[in-house]
């Protein structure tokens, strides 16, 4: 019996391999390692460090190559030239969202991040316009961030210089900013409902960056039939959706179409205007998913970056000292920092950029997909093919950054000490799918970090050589290790 089963499995594998080799479409794709039947190249990838695996493949196959993650081909773009050419020069063709099965199950193709086609275009256009109406990039949003920065400082003062893990405090600040934009509400840092939301968000990020989630996304049948942390992720997503649906219903009851207060109000007004359109994308479920997208993206990426920034500033006190000297000279102690100060603070601006470059927060970006058959680098990529763009390879390019493995703000300074822009700076991605909240995130990082360093000295609990800055996971996101520090008032 065992021999019969073995023969059947062997014949099936040979048949699948034969069919795969006969596939006329594969010859048009870029080269890559030979995949195994069913599992593709999965065993050749280190799910704990995908970015290094992609770098290794690029050394063999060049800047554009094909991997089979399961049975489907994925085209990988490695290096600045390939990534720029795809996302910027061919932005429209590479503007699709690639498959991310665990998110597809929770979002059902709705929202801002994981939607496609006309639905995505309409929701993104509306979102960008509404964020501008609500003051994105203008003074009133800056005022909100400055007010929250002062609330953050007051919360840090309550630690009385005692050791603390900054994870949740640093999550609360950007979360309150995005909440004020979405539903005109901020929370007290000790609000239990607020802390529960923070805990679920943090949990989701840990799950999404785990090796198990990489397995699930490449073999989606596991999501429905296997136990694992992906089920907790889906429960967390359902909880968030229910929470936002409750907020939406409250807004429906108090809506004043002549005086929209926040993102939800603007959306509900747009929905009412499209009541006659039965194919309208502006449904309540789409609103709940869109708000959930804005909430998660507007909280986690910024809070992780803040957390990593403080860890790096602990590790490199000479950088911290230079930033604090610049803050004292430009801002002083009698007012809070503002965005206008940034142009007079090149070293601080360079430090913030270097943090984002060095931590390489989303190493392989979110998956893209081509929206039509695309001729790219002498290859023909079929419509719908998933594309991975290695942001790591851009942010660590040694042609642009002299010592990319080293944390050094000088990477963004010229020989005169002036801030130097770089086209290789792509932590927010690039092109049509780049982060819609980039402007807000940049503002928050500058104002939160400068306000913290204006008011506190950072004291580590261990010797500098024992401060570990190695990411604990490097799947979807590169997450810093947990740590404690003391905020000493100055």
TrEMBL record:
<comment type="similarity">
    <text>Belongs to the cytochrome P450 family.</text>
</comment>
<keyword id="KW-0521">NADP</keyword>
<dbReference type="GO" id="GO:0020037">
    <property type="term" value="F:heme binding"/>
</dbReference>
<dbReference type="GO" id="GO:0005789">
    <property type="term" value="C:endoplasmic reticulum membrane"/>
</dbReference>
<dbReference type="GO" id="GO:0005743">
    <property type="term" value="C:mitochondrial inner membrane"/>
</dbReference>
<dbReference type="InterPro" id="IPR001128">
    <property type="entry name" value="Cyt_P450"/>
</dbReference>
<keyword id="KW-0443">Lipid metabolism</keyword>
<keyword id="KW-0408">Iron</keyword>
<comment type="subunit">
    <text>Interacts with chaperones HSP70 and HSP90; this interaction is required for initial targeting to mitochondria.</text>
</comment>
<dbReference type="InterPro" id="IPR050182">
    <property type="entry name" value="Cytochrome_P450_fam2"/>
</dbReference>
<dbReference type="GO" id="GO:0030544">
    <property type="term" value="F:Hsp70 protein binding"/>
</dbReference>
<dbReference type="GO" id="GO:0005506">
    <property type="term" value="F:iron ion binding"/>
</dbReference>
<dbReference type="InterPro" id="IPR017972">
    <property type="entry name" value="Cyt_P450_CS"/>
</dbReference>
<keyword id="KW-0496">Mitochondrion</keyword>
<keyword id="KW-0560">Oxidoreductase</keyword>
<comment type="function">
    <text>A cytochrome P450 monooxygenase involved in the metabolism of fatty acids. Mechanistically, uses molecular oxygen inserting one oxygen atom into a substrate, and reducing the second into a water molecule, with two electrons provided by NADPH via cytochrome P450 reductase (NADPH--hemoprotein reductase). Catalyzes the hydroxylation of carbon-hydrogen bonds. Hydroxylates fatty acids specifically at the omega-1 position displaying the highest catalytic activity for saturated fatty acids. May be involved in the oxidative metabolism of xenobiotics.</text>
</comment>
<keyword id="KW-0256">Endoplasmic reticulum</keyword>
<dbReference type="GO" id="GO:0006805">
    <property type="term" value="P:xenobiotic metabolic process"/>
</dbReference>
<dbReference type="InterPro" id="IPR036396">
    <property type="entry name" value="Cyt_P450_sf"/>
</dbReference>
<feature type="binding site" description="axial binding residue">
    <location>
        <position position="435"/>
    </location>
    <ligand>
        <name>heme</name>
    </ligand>
</feature>
<feature type="signal peptide">
    <location>
        <begin position="1"/>
        <end position="27"/>
    </location>
</feature>
<keyword id="KW-0492">Microsome</keyword>
<dbReference type="InterPro" id="IPR002401">
    <property type="entry name" value="Cyt_P450_E_grp-I"/>
</dbReference>
<comment type="pathway">
    <text>Lipid metabolism; fatty acid metabolism.</text>
</comment>
<dbReference type="InterPro" id="IPR008070">
    <property type="entry name" value="Cyt_P450_E_grp-I_CYP2E-like"/>
</dbReference>
<keyword id="KW-0503">Monooxygenase</keyword>
<dbReference type="Pfam" id="PF00067">
    <property type="entry name" value="p450"/>
</dbReference>
<protein>
    <recommendedName>
        <fullName>Cytochrome P450 2E1</fullName>
        <ecNumber>1.14.13.n7</ecNumber>
        <ecNumber>1.14.14.1</ecNumber>
    </recommendedName>
</protein>
<keyword id="KW-0349">Heme</keyword>
<keyword id="KW-0999">Mitochondrion inner membrane</keyword>
<dbReference type="GO" id="GO:0016712">
    <property type="term" value="F:oxidoreductase activity, acting on paired donors, with incorporation or reduction of molecular oxygen, reduced flavin or flavoprotein as one donor, and incorporation of one atom of oxygen"/>
</dbReference>
<keyword id="KW-0472">Membrane</keyword>
<dbReference type="GO" id="GO:0006631">
    <property type="term" value="P:fatty acid metabolic process"/>
</dbReference>
<keyword id="KW-0732">Signal</keyword>
<keyword id="KW-0276">Fatty acid metabolism</keyword>
<keyword id="KW-0479">Metal-binding</keyword>
<dbReference type="GO" id="GO:0051879">
    <property type="term" value="F:Hsp90 protein binding"/>
</dbReference>
